[in-house]
Amino acid sequence: MSEKWPVALVLGVLLVVGMVHVGALRPGQDWGGDFAMYVAHARNLAEGRPYAETGYVYNPDYATVGPPTYPPVCPLLLAPVCLVYGPDLEAMKPVMIAALLVFLLFVFLVLRKELPAGQAAAIVALVGLNRCFLGDANSIRSDLPFMAILYAAIYVIQKAYGNPDADRPRPGCVLLAALLIVAAYGARTVGIVLLPSLLVYELVRYRRITRWAVAATLLVGAVLAAKSVLVPGDTGYLDQYDVGLGVFLQNGMGYAAEFAAFWHNGYSKPIGAALFAAVTVLAVLGYVSSVRRRVTFLEIFPIFYVLAVLAFPGFAGRRYLQPIFPLYLFYAARGLQLAWLVDRPALRRAAVAAMLLAVAATYAASFTNLQLDFAEGISRPESVALFDYVAQQTEADDVIVFIKPRVMALLTSRRSAAYHMPDDDARLWEFFDRIGATHLVVVDSDEAMALAESPERIEYLRAFARRNAARLAPVFTNRDFSVYRIAEPTALAQGAR
Fold first, then answer.
1. How far, in Å, CA of 157 to CA of 113, rounded?
2. Are 435 and 417 in contact (CB under 8 A)?
3. Predicted confidence (pLDDT) per residue in 196-241, tens digit
4. DSSP code of residue 429
5. pLDDT per 10-residue tile (average), the chain, 497 residues
6. What does the alpha-carbon distance between residue 210 and residue 216 come to, in Å, rounded to a whole number?
7. Mind listing the pLDDT tens digit for each residue in 362-404?
8. pLDDT, tens digit, for every residue of 292-310?
9. Environment class of 146 (CB within 10 Å of its CB; exposed 0-12, middle 13-18, buried 19+)
10. How far, in Å, CA of 466 to CA of 7, rounded?
11. Nearest to 336 by CA among 364, 322, 356, 362
12. 155-191 CB burial, b ≥16 within 10 A, e <16
């Protein structure tokens, strides 16, 4: 058979996946504020403005909203679009599609070194057509660019250590891997786990760290040091870390439930849970078998990645699980190659057939029950009216307090901050005074933020506004939002006299 057939196979799979994802594009954007930061940074790069001047006012007492600045790789990818079309969200979605296809291509290249081409292509299809990936290109985020760079780095690391008889890696590939590690970190901070994974792999393989790995570490350090000078502020991610057993346990339970969602058929959760359990058992068996046979970088990286995700208290659901989903499927495929199954061909054929049938039925069912349209979003008429009011009826130096400050800053060109929820109102007023807050935006309808914010956070500011009505003058209202002008303390004192 021609050696070109794997190329034709994967290109065919990518074509189908690409067409499906293009068909899944929908207008609009959800309330998730990450997109606003990436677009604001991209606009600044395109227009020659200071990178960090996004209008978002960081609140260290509510750090999980996000750091003062975001990593620069995603904005760099979006900057050419901003240069041509301005901050047009719809024009940026093809960039997300392209990142998805690059990610899937490198998934194939990585797995092709471990599996037959047909199995590697099948995993690419299972990833690209999974319900938890469909529609992702509708959101302007770093997820897809990060995964593309991540698997490009893994592929280059495989190339660097591809000769099993060599006593050192290929120097050029190691240094290229170092640059890709920097790029992965520049797309999403957790990408830095590639570096300790590489060093541990060298210790496992060579019982030492080679000079090329040391050089790669120094290169990563030098580039990151330069980046911290050129793009300061994203160290705010560190404010969110609170490593402890409680965080690990809470995240572990949450992410286990989210992982099961990859196998949800859209109708019956118990059936999806049963399939998840079966595939997970295969994946665990396949991983153990791989470790016993030969430890590679693919066995080490997921451990570091999962530990980093579990230590991060800002629970992000399936977004943080997507990067390891291809490896999860890879080890499940390895599980079907266990010696005791191979020695029982009839049983193995039955197991493979049953698994293929269950997976195909799950994917087919999930396609009939997809919900790709946004249940909430910034295009809701009441939201548009709010942004128009703030942009047109407030002063350029006003500061707006809002539950989604990054979105407010992008769409109104006003500085905006999130609020935290202290027990004492005076502490929140201190924060408002410190940042020079002039307006408070209260969400009056839970529906306006459906699935985007917790009702508890929404109700907190409502109750705060009721308790402090004397200091808040209503200036705008519609069905979803109320805007209050914050009275100056001097004005309050004069009014009392």
1. 12
2. yes
3. 999 999 999 999 999 999 999 999 999 888 877 776 655 555 555 5
4. H
5. 74 95 88 92 95 93 88 95 92 96 97 93 96 90 96 97 87 95 93 96 94 93 81 55 64 83 89 92 94 94 92 77 96 88 83 89 88 73 95 96 96 96 95 96 89 88 95 96 84 42
6. 10
7. 999 988 887 776 656 788 899 999 999 999 999 999 999 999 9
8. 989 999 999 999 999 888 8
9. buried
10. 64
11. 356
12. bbbbbbbeeeeeebbbeebbbbbbebbbbbbbbbbbb
**Residue in the block written with tokens 């609170």:** 242
Per-domain residue ranges of the chain:
241-371, 381-496
Q: Which residue has the tokens 């924060």?
A: 431
State pTM to two decimals: 0.89
Distance CA 334, CA 91 (A): 40
Three-state SS across the chain?
CCCCHHHHHHHHHHHHHHHHHHHCCCCCCCCCCHHHHHHHHHHHHHHCCCCCCCCEECCHHHHHHCCCCCCCHHHHHHHHHHHHHCCCHHHHHHHHHHHHHHHHHHHHHHHHCCCCHHHHHHHHHHHHCCCCCCCHHHCCCCHHHHHHHHHHHHHHHHHHCCCCCCCCCCHHHHHHHHHHHHHHHHHCHHHHHHHHHHHHHHHHHHCCCCHHHHHHHHHHHHHHHHHHHHCCCHHHHHHHCCCCHHHHHHHHHHHHHHHHHHHCCCCCHHHHHHHHHHHHHHHHHHHHHHHHHCCCHHHHHHHHHHHHHHHCCCCCHHHHCHHHHHHHHHHHHHHCCCHHHHCCHHHHHHHHHHHHHHHHHHHHHHHCCCCCCCCCCCCCHHHHHHHHHHHHHCCCCCEEECCCHHHHHHHHCCEEECCCCCCCHHHHHHHHHHHCCCEEEEECCHHHHCCCCCHHHHHHHHHHHHHCHHHEEEEEECCCEEEEEECCHHHHHHHHC
What type of residue is 131? R
